[in-house]
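Appendix B. Raw example, untouched.
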Amino acid sequence: MKIENINFVYFSATHTTKNIMKHMVNQMEGNKKEYNITQYIPEVDIVMDRSDLLVVGMPVYAGRIPAITLPALGRFKGNDTPAIIVCVYGNRDYDDALLELKDVVEANGFKVVSAGAFIAQHSIFPKVGASRPDVQDMERITGFAQKSWEKIHSITDTCSLSGITPKGNHPYKVPGKLPLQPSGNKRCTACGTCVKLCPVQAIPADAPRKTDKEKCISCARCIAVCPADARHFGGLLYKVAGMKFVKAYAERKEPEFYF
């Protein structure tokens, strides 16, 4: 198949998934269109045909893709259009996330050519998966992107694809509500950056050190974007949970691929 247009779509609260996606599409040739759906839902459907390619990257939250991405993902429509899907997780497990993303993409008219699960530094407990993706990870990501690109060019019709079956279960894992939310400290200058960039509007403009616990999805975006380094997870519960989490998930996980 000859690909003319590469549409890459991602949700990336802390920029890691975005960086992985950009590295991937840099291994491919074609007109590239970027869709950052971290805070954006297209107003109209974006329809693609068989000369297009969809590349989608999602972080894993509690074993699932972020629920808030579903309206945006629903705007991307295919006509047996080839797709590459990726999930990024913090060295614990990706559970049902990759399977869920495959189901969503295929329901929208795409044919999944390849799927990958990559490891990044955990956004809540950064000692887990620290400094990942590292050099070895980036080499694996490069290899995955190149092999996926070769696979796409080796097929003549996406309808002939037998499909892939990534790890995961139906019904999907039911994610619990994480009792850990970041908050601001005395370094906060009330600049409003976190208020503006929180994907679920969980930070009140008139009290930017606080966090609406009901709205917060613990994505750590406010920590990543704060220019004063004033927002963090903390407290006794966080300390205790962190010790247990680090002990349980310190062993290095490696990327997994499906073609």
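End of appendix B.
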